[in-house]
Amino acid sequence: MLFRAESVTKSFGPNKVLTDANIQINEHDAIGLIGINGAGKSTFIKILLGIEQPDTGEVIRRTHRIGYLEQFAESSHVTVREVLGRPYGHIENIKSRMGEIDRKMAEGGDIDWNALATEYADLEQKLASCDVADEHKLEEALSKVGLDPGEMMGRYMDTLSGGERTKVMLARIVVQASDCDILVMDEPTSHLDIDTIEWLEDYMIASQLAFLVVSHDRYFLDKMTSRMVEIENGKTREYKGNYSDFIMKKMIDINRQEKEYLRYTQNKKQQEKIAAQMHHDMWYSATYRPARR
Predict the structure, then answer these.
(1) Residue 284 gets which letter from DSSP?
(2) Which of 34, 46, 91, 289 could pair with 51 in a Cys bridge, judged by C-beta atoms 3.0 to 4.6 Å apart?
(3) Total-model pTM
(4) The domain that contains 197 carries what CATH number?
């Protein structure tokens, strides 16, 4: 088990977005998260990832090795290289430790100067090695999604088209994937051409990672998913199978609900008719008194 959410609720002011949301994601699961616009899909994803906190309910995360593609691609004034490099926690850890050593040396006091100097030199060497290896990974990831690394690496995100920004974010997923247990993607096929969508489908299948995807692309969901989770009126309901299976089962559910409602209304009318007759009989017996002879 990678994730489990139980009885999750979330409100924004008077607007109750989630009232009883549940999901369990296991290794190698392929899950589509669906619902009408405003149903709470993106909110539920952010709660699962810990970006937002639920009002009530429980979320259990058994992994932090997560790749996340947001619904709206990064569009700030940062370079493509910076965006692609953000997943590298090990680089940040190295730089953080180097900063700690710098501060200790600046403060002086009772410290082991030789040990700190040796550690700092080792960290510098590791950082240089990471920079070379990671630069190659970033270039390779851009090439995989159909972008020219030489042209794109130094460009700013706010100068790119919507499709280019989405491809950069897909490349970041590629960079992350080797260190991930699960990919979480919110509308990954938006702004993508057919060739890139097909590449993404093949890549996800080959990765054998678990994934949770929000999408309105029924063809993508048909090919990629084996479970569907629908959010409706703040509650989740799970269906086995892909999107086409979901549609069929949903129609069966709606048909069953309509029949149940019809039986309910017919029974209600019958009960009301009986109650009206009983009321009439009681009124008649109370008001009619035959004359005594």
Answers:
(1) H
(2) 46
(3) 0.70
(4) 3.40.50.300
